[in-house]
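Q: Structure for this?
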Amino acid sequence: AQSVSQHNHHVILSEAASLELGCNYSYGGTVNLFWYVQYPGQHLQLLLKYFSGDPLVKGIKGFEAEFIKSKFSFNLRKPSVQWSDTAEYFCAVNPNDMRFGAGTRLTVKP
Amino acid sequence: DTEVTQTPKHLVMGMTNKKSLKCEQHMGHRAMYWYKQKAKKPPELMFVYSYEKLSINESVPSRFSPECPNSSLLNLHLHALQPEDSALYLCASSQVRDSPYEQYFGPGTRLTVT
């Protein structure tokens, strides 16, 4: 079945640690890839997106993601997390309409 | 202006009530969406409007009735809801329905059905 998989349900890090959140999808053909973030009590915001071109995309707040076509992956990274990065992170794929992964809750300890 | 607004922010309704949720955007987007999000879960697509016409209804019960009066407005009419319908209802818009356009989300309406 077509799906979006996020492997980590809850990640706990200390400030300044590096972050990598996994995302795999199983849609064939051309897809567009997104990472959204939902801070506590706030609405979903776009972190970054990939449509074509350079597979390494940079987003807001120091986040980046790498599209690896052969692995059907679009992992999110940040070299050094801050307490303010505590949030829910959703990977999404748009073959026609947006389909979200289950989400990863990130808790950053001060 | 990249804002999608939703009213009300919170809504408590009984199972026999009729209420409506409202969504508005002024970005000139021609695709608008309703999602349902339960706690600690991802948003689930309910309806898609493209150029004010309903394109997708993801097998949503008829107690939810969407309406798109014009290109800036999207309503969700609620009637005879069940307690399990309690959730955060999100509205989103995008330039047009087909990818590669990202969606802009509103803050949501927190609905509680008693």
